[in-house]
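Hey, resending since the last one bounced:
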Amino acid sequence: MRLFKKENAYYDLQKTVHEKLIISGTIGTLKHKLIHFSYSNYSSYKQKMIRYGFLKAGDELLKGTNPTVFNLYIRPIYQFIYLYIIRLGVLDGKNGLIISYLNALSIYVRFRELKKMKLKN
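The structure tokens again:
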């Protein structure tokens, strides 16, 4: 959503990553696609995915999720295979490989950090 009055909108902060925007009022639409670059290079994208992993670990802690061997090792591998093979990231060449890897890394970081948080409690 891009066209709305700021004073009629707020974020539902139940999730720290990909918060939901709540809008009361009308929402406008764009005539053309909006090109959105969320990162400028490999390093910035990697840092973003690691930061998301840390933030999502906090969400998982609040939900009461327990870090398991499955979450730490199988889920990241599955995520990589899902994005690279099933979602056809392989067709994007090097970029598909990088995106699949960094998404899997984010999941690994999430559950590694969750494990650390649980050990502190």
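The mean pLDDT is 91.

Sorry for the duplicate.
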